[in-house]
Amino acid sequence: MPARARLLVLLAAFVCAACGLVYELELVALGGYLLGDSVTQTSVVLSVMVFAMGLGSLLAKHFTRRAAVSFALVECALAVVGGLSVLLLYACWAWLGRYQVALIALTCLIGVLIGAEIPLLMTLIQRIRREEAGRAAADLFAADYVGALIGGLAFPFLLLPALGQADGALLTGAVNAVAGAAVVLWLFRDEPSPRARLLLWTGCGTVLAVLAVAGACTGAIERAARHALYGTTPRQAVQSRYGEIVLTGQARVPAQAGQPLRLYLSGRLAACGSDEYRYHEALVHPALAGVGDSRVLLLGGGDGLALREVLRHRKVTEVLVVTLDPAVPALARTDPALSALGEHSFADPRVRVVTADPLAWLREDSATERFDAVLADLPAPERASRSEYHAVEFYGLAAARLATAGRLAVPAPAGPGLWTVEAGLRAAGLFTVPFPVPGSGPACDPAGSGDAATVLLAARDLRPEPALAADAPPPRSFTAPELSAAATRLATGRPQPLPPPSTLLEPR
């Protein structure tokens, strides 16, 4: 019997470790989805979590006399806090705007509770059968580490795709509560008094009921938060592996005045139907004014809007779209308003779509295809999580795909960040010319499609001249003389020397 009881305690350690790592990954993933800076979010969560676990281990020393009851209380608290953490953080992000403070507070509390588990479990193991401390610690930590492995694998491959962020955390909390109750109310049922046992049963049942009610209300909470965030009820909301995709505005085409279609990716405006053409015209048309321009590589662009501008060029015979999240082009194909805004560009037989990370595809694809134009319709560098698409290595790999006299176009932010991007392109051996995106109208954020306020045009052999091709309708937002004049004005502010470029090892 002692051997069986000991095995069950180790099983509880296994389950609790798996749940603890799921909570940790939930916090990291949600921070990356909502704030975009996955490097900072991961660093904050991991460092605060490890510190708090050490603090929790120290605090647990004061509760080892009643280790079973203390362990049950810790697991109930962890089930509530960890299970509700995603909904609480999402609500803070949508309504309060103090997400970082809430993230640190929840991470610290969860870490303290996780850190208290090991000392209490060690005490319970020794209570079953006293043995050498090193052997007992080895068994306990082995169960803990294997459980962490299972939890770490279950999160991205099972919980996240099957249940999503909120429901996955709630289910993990329920498992946590049941594991704690099983250890105390069955194996160590003699420690608590009958009154304490009744309270523990009641507490565990209450925790499970709270998690069940939260699970039933998840949809309503998400809808209310989205309404507060976007100012209206989203017409479409898709949770993909890479973030939340939201469409607002009219489904009718064309939309009524004052209600343009808006596309949000992880809470950020990615396209606004009344103004998006300004950015996409600036990204595409000058790049396709070179020689040839029959084959185009579009990195990103899953919404089909840059693709629409590419297909207006009659010389284009093939467009290869490499996009990370398959849910975005799927929505661009099926949503009537977004599909109409993109002029059903994905239905064009000239288009081929590859689902892959653009940087990984450039690095790993063994094909020797060359393109007359390479367009990086990717987020402008604002945070560390976006810097890989604006590193010297990325530009070098993209430039290697250019045919003779081919052109590369990339977005850049306004201000000093523009010159960091230009420094990266020049470090990759490219000649560059920057020009601003024409100003947007009152319905949308500046720069129309959200992030980019400038476009950099680059070529390998000589400085590309801002121009427009004759095989496409003229852009609505600028003319060739206006483009050239704007590029000249912007170049006068170029610092000498340029700032250091961003690299994968030293993102800037």
Descriptive overview:
The chain has 508 residues and is an alpha/beta fold. The protein folds into two domains: 2-227, MFS general substrate transporter like domains (Growth Hormone, Chain: A, Up-down Bundle); 270-491, Rossmann fold, CATH 3.40.50. Helix content is 55%, strand content 13%. It is built from 14 helices and eleven strands. The chain has helices spanning 2-35, 38-60, 67-96, 99-128, 133-187, 194-230, 276-284, 305-311, 327-334, 336-341, 358-364, 392-399, 416-427, 480-491, and strands spanning 236-240, 243-248, 262-265, 268-272, 295-300, 318-323, 351-355, 371-377, 402-412, 431-436, 454-459. The strands form two sheets. It has a seven-stranded mixed beta sheet with strand order 7-6-5-8-9-11-10. The chain has a four-stranded antiparallel beta sheet with strand order 1-2-3-4, with helices on one face. A hairpin with a 2-residue loop joins strand 3 (262-265) and strand 4. The longest helix is centred in the N-terminal third of the chain and has 55 residues, at 133-187. Residues 445-451 have low confidence and may be disordered.
According to CATH, what is the class of the largest domain? Mainly Alpha
The stretches of 5 or more residues where confidence is low (pLDDT under 50) are 445-451
Class computed from helices, strands and strand pairing: alpha/beta
Over the alpha carbons, how many angstroms does the gyration radius reach? Answer: 27 Å
**What is the residue-mean pLDDT, rounded to a whole number?**
83
What fraction strand? Answer: 5-15%
Helix content: 40-55%
Output the CATH homologous superfamily of the largest domain.
MFS general substrate transporter like domains
CATH third-tier fold name of the largest domain: Growth Hormone, Chain: A
The tally of structural domains comes to: 2
Cα end-to-end separation: 60 Å
Number of DSSP strand runs: 11
Question: Mind describing the biggest β-sheet?
Answer: 7 strands, mixed
Widest sheet, order of strands: 7-6-5-8-9-11-10
Shape summary: elongated
The CATH architecture of the largest domain would be Up-down Bundle
Number of helical elements: 14
List the helices and strands in order.
HHHHHHEEEEHEHEHHEHEHEHEEH
